[in-house]
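Researcher: Go.
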Amino acid sequence: MDDHRQSGYSLFELIITLALASIFAGLAAPSFAEYIDTSRLRSATEAIASDFRKTRILAIQSGQNQYINFQNTGSNWCYSIATETSKACDRSGGSSADFSRIKLDKVAFGNKPSIAFSPLRGSARNGRITLSTASGKSASVIVSPLGRIRTCSSQTTGYTPC
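Model: Structure:
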């Protein structure tokens, strides 16, 4: 008696496996897209907060005012770091091109689109900038009058609430 057992999977088993894998991938896609959106927002927020901190330190070290100048809001925005207020964006700062699909919703430093860090203890005019994603999540970089810089978000995990 020859007992020939066949090894491997039948076509039916492969089709069922592929169908289940497709269903699970379809369920995971929306949460993955949300994760990508949140990661982009976090990256942009942290990069801008880092530039604020560097500019504050530069003001203290150089002994002169240092400015971060924002231009435009919405999906086409930029900012520069300079020793004076200006409207020109250069590569000293960042832009919407660096952070795809991130909008600059609000720049609020009094009635000016720029913030000045003083060489005296790095103090500044208090205010905030707010960034958002297309899905509606937002995060802010807040500057206190003493120059303290912090990030917050009411909709993104890992941040203190605003």
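Model: Residues 36 and 145 are 34 Å apart (CA to CA).
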